[in-house]
Amino acid sequence: MTSPAELAFDKAHELIDARDLDGLARLIGDLPTLVHAHGKNGNDLLGMATATCDERLCRLLLEHGADPAAANVHGWTALHQAGYAGLPPLVTMLLDAGAPVDVSARGDGGTPLVVALFWGHREAAEVLAARDPSPGNLRVAAGLGRADLLDSLIAPYGTLAPAAGAHREFYRPHSGFPDWRPSDDPAEIVDEALSWAARNDRSDAVRTLVARGAEVDAEVHRGTALAWAAAQGKAEVIGTLAELGASVNHQGTFGGLSHGAGVTALHLAVQGGHVAAVRALLAAGADPSLEDSLYSSSAVGWAEHFGQAEILSVLRAA
């Protein structure tokens, strides 16, 4: 039988999903302890509100005493979620409320900064890094484009400092990505960092890493550097990678097992609706007729499926 407290929590969740600020304010006014309650997987209302990307709801909950350090069973806090969504104003709000920046979720080193960098949210990442660049390993240095950190972690001839590969247990933000475990292999560490530089549009870091031994077409876990750049719509670094010899027609994996098999960077740019990235890939020689392995569909087919009218006209013109 569902308890009154559980019913109230479920009602609060419904109000958050509906973005009903007034309704949530009334409910919390009647039951102030709701801001400290936890539901499935240990999620609290602040975490749920952050997932809606609604600053009003988050501000309300914080004003009523919600704990910005509260975490679910995976260690995931509201600040992790704000980094995941790439929302600098919400990141700033949570930081100002006292949200911790050096806590890990889904593995050692999975700080809010790392989560933001994983998705290429460089603006949110820069806000977080200004408070604390933890864990400060090579993939963080690459994602932030920090030449000083890169120089301290990887020598001109590719030798790595011990900190370069430290705190890399985090490898996915949710279970949609398949199981994998990072290793201490120096090549893997450098190739992974290249991907993080690319997805954050850090051309200078990409050049540095390739010059110091990164394999431009390496696919460390679910995507090459070019695939990640395309998926995140980073047109400038696409040109840099192509100039450095990346195969624009490489067919590999990306994301979840039911999503990316035999996909090209062009498929991913199309799916994301990234017109500039599509143009950059076509200029570099991407072939729009190549089909992926799961759906046997070309980039044109993906554009039709995802309703990308502008991209469809660009592809047909090509």
Automatic annotation (TrEMBL):
<protein>
    <submittedName>
        <fullName>Ankryin</fullName>
    </submittedName>
</protein>
<feature type="repeat" description="ANK">
    <location>
        <begin position="261"/>
        <end position="293"/>
    </location>
</feature>
<feature type="repeat" description="ANK">
    <location>
        <begin position="74"/>
        <end position="106"/>
    </location>
</feature>
<dbReference type="InterPro" id="IPR036770">
    <property type="entry name" value="Ankyrin_rpt-contain_sf"/>
</dbReference>
<keyword id="KW-0040">ANK repeat</keyword>
<dbReference type="InterPro" id="IPR002110">
    <property type="entry name" value="Ankyrin_rpt"/>
</dbReference>
<keyword id="KW-0677">Repeat</keyword>
<dbReference type="Pfam" id="PF12796">
    <property type="entry name" value="Ank_2"/>
</dbReference>
